Amino acid sequence: MPLSEHEQRLLEQIERALVDDDPKFASSVRTGDRRLKSRRRLQIGAALVVVGFAILVGGAVAQEWLIGALGFLVAFGGAALAVLHYKVATGAVEPGPAPTSGRGPSGPARGNRGARGGRQPLKSRLEERFRRRYDQ
66 CB contacts (<8 Å, ≥6 apart)? Predict the structure, then answer.
């Protein structure tokens, strides 16, 4: 749900006040492109997988199980990092709030509680409920 004009003006005033008050903090908080950050983390994860497998093989050649276990942990950590950032890095999912539908809780989506296909995230549903109560 987009912000109203009044809310946008207030947000811009807050941002300007923050930049005027502490420009160093404002530049560190300013969000960049999430896709670029996720691509970098995806690349780092892939590199960690390769390095982890190299350490794993090195441990097997040296017949040291501790080195092999360390290699496995490095490879597993790299794979986890890559998997966590894959969707945003490839553009499969745009970051940000999910689009809201006009249906209430009595709509057709209520019947499939187990299916997560067309449902909104919990945070979005709670925000929508709060807005409806506030508007009444």
Answer: 59
Beta strands of the chain (E only): which ranges?
Answer: none
Give the residue extent of every domain in the chain: 34-92
Q: Which amino acid is at 113?
A: R
The total of other beta-carbon atoms located within 10 Å of residue 38's CB is 20
Return d(Cα 128, Cα 30) in angstroms, integer: 26
- 98 contacts: CB under 8 Å, gap ≥ 6: 120, 121, 124
Structure confidence by residue, pLDDT tens digits, 17-68 = 887 887 777 776 666 667 778 888 889 999 999 999 999 999 999 999 999 9
54 dihedral zone (left: phi>0; alpha: psi -120 to 50; beta): alpha
pTM of the model: 0.47
> What are the angstrom distances between the C-alpha of 15 and each of 5, 7, 25, 48, 67?
15, 12, 11, 38, 50
Q: How far is CA 95 from the centre of its chain?
A: 7
Residues 35, 91 contacting (CB under 8 angstroms): yes
- Alpha-carbon span 22 to 79, nearest angstrom: 38
